[in-house]
Design a protein that fits this description.
CATH topology of the largest domain: Beta-lactamase
Number of domains: 2
CATH architecture of the largest domain: 3-Layer(aba) Sandwich
CATH class of the largest domain: Alpha Beta
Strand content: 5-15%
Number of helices: 12
Order of helices and strands: HEEEHHHHHHHEHHHEEEH
Largest sheet: 5 strands, antiparallel
Shape: globular
Strand order of the largest sheet: 2-1-7-6-5
Distance between the termini: 17 Å
CATH superfamily of the largest domain: DD-peptidase/beta-lactamase superfamily
Number of strands: 7
């Protein structure tokens, strides 16, 4: 049953949340990627986009930041529609993991597959499956995909890309294991990694991120131009994986306290979807030890509590 949600008070409430959590300085920027460490701790934005195209926003919602891991669900959806479920499941599983986002444990287990596409090993495997006659064509497909979602041209932060490439020793080890076990089939492992790093380095703002989430909430239909960007089945698959795997080793806590399909990125963006109703995005670059924006976690917990947003709730309080 579709949840009924009245948006009348949402603008006032997100403004209150912005003022409430702007002074919160817990966490730190992602200093293991040197370029991300330079982000200003003061940047903070909240945007809500309903499936019928209403937008409620506050803060630095036009400030650009890199997608990082918030890109993972969307590239997964694109590749899933290109190659189908059977081949995708032979390469990447759909099971949650209690391990960190950069875990390699599952690659040494019996299946040798990444547990799911929301962790780094799974996302690197998915990126390697993007087809094209050369690297440039493959990258253009990924950038064009996100441009369809957000409705305008996008660029890549080359400084972040180079910073990630230079410090990506663990991701490089993951890629070599994926190649060893036949998950990555292409010969040029560095090309697969570069495609993944470029994907993570695409620049968006919080309003863009909210539109991405609202499209998933709307069965793959863009909330503004009504274009069917991905099928409703693919949208459902993505949302199920976001709910069970999107917040890494704190996904259970998120499901308990917020109750929405979600995905975070270490640049400070978090997006979540309430199916049939809206997409929500929060950006603040101060992250906790699990890679989630500290302010975003607080905002989502308060929003979910006030409006009974959990998919397990029957409606507003």
């Amino acid at each position: 049953m579709k949840k009924v949600f009245h948006t009348g008070s949402i603008q006032k409430y997100i403004e209150e949340l912005y003022q409430k959590y702007l002074p919160l300085n817990a966490g730190k920027t992602a200093d293991y990627i040197p370029e991300l460490a330079k982000a200003s701790k003061d940047h903070f934005a909240i945007v809500v986009t309903t499936v019928d195209g209403q937008v409620f926003k506050v803060g630095d919602f036009e400030h650009n930041f890199t997608l990082q891991s918030t890109s993972k669900p969307f590239v997964y959806g694109y590749v899933l529609e290109e190659i189908g479920r059977e081949k995708m499941l032979s390469k990447v599983g759909v099971e949650p993991t209690g391990d960190a986002f950069n875990s390699i444990i599952e690659l040494e287990e019996q299946s040798h597959r990444p547990y799911n596409p929301m962790i780094n090993s799974g996302a690197i495997a998915v990126s390697s499956l993007v087809a094209g006659k050369n690297f440039e064509e493959r990258l253009k497909k990924i950038v064009s995909l996100f441009e369809k979602y957000v409705g305008h041209n996008l660029t890549i932060d080359e400084n972040v890309f180079l910073s990630e490439k230079k410090t990506a020793h663990r991701n490089r080890a993951i890629a070599h294991l994926l190649k060893h076990f036949g998950i990555i089939e292409e010969e040029n492992i560095e090309e697969s990694l570069d495609l993944y790093f470029k994907q993570c380095s695409i620049l968006v703002n919080t309003q863009d991120l909210s539109t991405l989430a609202a499209t998933l909430a709307n069965n793959g239909v863009h909330p503004h131009n009504k274009e069917q960007i991905l099928s409703s089945d693919t949208s459902r698959d993505i949302l199920s994986l976001m709910f069970t795997c999107g917040m890494y080793d704190s996904t259970g806590q998120w499901a308990y306290s917020v109750g929405l399909p979600a995905k975070s990125g270490v640049s400070g963006g978090v997006l979540a979807a309430l199916p049939g109703v809206m997409g929500i995005a929060v950006f603040s670059p101060l992250i906790d030890e699990r890679g989630h924006s500290v302010r975003a976690l607080k905002v989502f917990q308060d929003l979910s509590s006030k409006y009974s947003l959990s998919i397990f709730s029957s409606g507003e309080k």
